[in-house]
Amino acid sequence: MINSMTAFSRSSEEQVWGSLVWELRSVNHRYLDVVIKLPEEIRSIENEVRKRLNKTVKRGKIECNLRFKAAENQQSKLIVNEACVDEVLNACKTISTKLRQPSEMDVLELLKWPGVLDQTEIDLNPVINSAYTLFDEAVKNLVESREDEGRRLQVMIEERCRAMKKIVSNERQRRPQLLEKTRQKLLKKVEELKVDHDKDRFEQELVYITQKMDVDEELDRLDSHFIEVEEILKRNEPVGRRLDFIMQEFNREANTLGSKSADIETTQAAVELKVLIEQMREQVQNIE
Question: Would you place residue 73 in the very low, low, confident or very high pLDDT band (cuts 50, 70, 90)?
Fold first, then answer.
């Protein structure tokens, strides 16, 4: 079974302390590249989140975005420490008196003084626990989405391989006819020239031409690649890179088939093979 690298999942929850929303986006990438965006209040969970994702996903660029909105009654509030304010004001008055330079206090500057403002802290433990639970759910949904897309890609690859097998089979069946056609064509040219010819030399030249046209090896290698693809699709592991390599091998054989072509039918067969290979190659880039 193969998995796609392209997927999206979302999980959310609302509690008395507020709401959480995880959004995970996955696209194709040569390796595993994880980008995690967290609210400042719970940035401490990043390492654990990354560890959990790495256990499940092996390849792709994954963007993990968490949004947290605290409930109004749970949001932190600013509290003025009046005792500290009095101490700062008295200190300022004393200094102003000694300097004989009375001046008004800047309220904003006063608020910046350490200890003047206290901030109530909300209990983040329930938020963090829910963030982990929701993340696991989002990852599970992401993996399922990747598997669903992977099944669609596998069907597409199998269909293209069947079409290629048919082309290879037709070409193999045509080889004897093509060789005989080539022989007759050469004989006709010799007859048109109305010159005597050495039959042995003629047969030698025909063998030479036949060898140049011989694509049995390419057809055999294409068949072996079909078998390899079938075996790869059965593996329960990331296979994207293996499939990408096989696509390169497919393309190499199709190119050789086209370069050895001696008739329009073989050329057309090579072109059709390359079209099918390119369709697979584009999709294989999205396979984990």
Answer: low
Give how far the C-alpha of residue 204 lies from the chain's centroid of Cα atoms, to the nearest Å.
Answer: 54
What's the length of the chain?
288
Helical ranges in the chain per DSSP H: 46-56, 82-99, 107-111, 125-193, 199-213, 216-233, 240-259, 264-284
Alpha-carbon Rg for the chain, nearest whole angstrom, is: 37
Neighbours of 268 (CB within 10 A): 13
Backbone angles phi, psi at 22, to 5 degrees: -100, 135
Q: What is the mean pLDDT of residues 169-173?
A: 89
Domain 7-74+124-146 has CATH 3.30.230.40: yes
Q: Tell me the residue type at 154.
A: Q
Cα–Cα–Cα angle for 43, 47, 53, nearest 5°?
115
Nearest alpha-carbon partner for 168 in 65, 247, 97, 257: 257
Rounded Cα distance, 267 and 264, in Å? 5
Using a cut of 0.85, tell me whether the model's pTM lies above it: no
The ranges assigned to domains in the chain are: 7-74+124-146, 78-119, 149-284
At CB < 8 A and 24+ separation, what contacts does 246-250 make? 247/277, 247/280, 247/281, 247/284, 249/221, 249/225, 250/164, 250/222, 250/225, 250/277, 250/280
Confidence (pLDDT) at 4: 92
Is residue 200 within 8 A of residue 19, CB to CB? The reply is no
